[in-house]
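Dear Dr. L.,

I hope this message finds you well. Following up on our conversation about the binding site, I have prepared a predicted three-dimensional model of the protein together with acetyl coenzyme *A. For your records, I am including the exact sequence and ligand specification that went into the calculation, followed by the structure tokens. Please feel free to forward this to your student if that is useful.
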Amino acid sequence: MGIRIIGTGYYVPERVLTNSDLEKIVDTSDEWIQSRTGIRTRHIAEESTATSDLAMHAGQRAIENAGLTPADIDLVVVSTITPDSPTPSTATIVQRKLGIPPCMAFDIEAACTGLLYGLDIVHAMLAAKHRKTALLIGGDKLSGVTNWTDRSTCILFGDAASALVVQRTDEGDEDFYVASEVSANGYEAGFLQIPGFGSACPPSQEGIDAHAYTIQMNGPKTFQMAVISMSNACRNVMEKAHVTHDQISWAIAHQANDRIISAVADRVGISDRIYRNVARFGNTSSASIGICLDELNRSGQLKRGDLILTAAFGAGLTWAAELLRW
Ligand code: ACO
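The resulting structure of the complex is given below.
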């Protein structure tokens, strides 16, 4: 039995928001944003676009890249913190929009770590032979949960979705999933949250006035926790797999901030092989790792057998590192 990632895809909406555009909305500057985050542009969806629309396009591209059709998919998992609605799940909406036949479809929520949480779940389900071909999507329309008057957060985020097709084959013994650490610490959740909208804080005018339905973040604390969690998890995973940093072909850390990526890369000893595209997309939450994988895949920079070290960190607080074999 073998399990492999056989298709990748991503989608971003057309509209680009530059740092100069943001200078007109809040008290900030291109110089500050670039020097503190590395971000130059981000893509922002139209109001009428839902997360499922972003996810559908990404999913379609990944299925085509795998050389399959929607009829081949028997599991749909969508990671998102911005579902179309509380119910039905965005996964079932994407299933319908893509024309995937009836099969198991559900959402998961682990914020920016969501795609890596999803890979762990999908891998386990395929390994247990419950399903054969999974479509895993990380997608978020963060512009809809952004406080556009808060300069410390509104400069960071972009809208996007990315998708992976993961398949179990009965030939060969290849398994893309080499080693992982997937974890959470709910005791520190207050540093990064959208406090309102759910059962603990139902929709109200007071909530709207207090920006309870938008991302609230302690930036410096989140920065510090992101660096510590991702670097420790990377080192633990490499140790588990008996792999040294010179054996890693590519490293992909969640694209939240260029300085976070550099700090993790330095600590893990992989600065020369760390992939970066945060300048173009900003922080796209659970889409970010899949966008990097797709860009590497389509540009022919991945060779069969390459070891790819991935790491993510997000609200929860959640984090993960996964060592993947291409
Ligand atoms: N433009 C100009 N000045 C700004 C801006 C801005 N956009 N934002 C903040 N500042 C100011 C602050 O007000 C502060 O001013 P003061 O010293 O007069 O009080 C000063 O810049 C420094 O603020 P800090 O917050 O300390 O700046 P820092 O260097 O930490 O950068 C940032 C802020 C970019 C948010 C950084 O902390 C960061 O990237 N944190 C991590 C974000 C992240 O990774 N999130 C991931 C998860 S998101 C998710 O899960 C959905």
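In brief: The chain has a mean pLDDT of 96.

With kind regards,
A. P.
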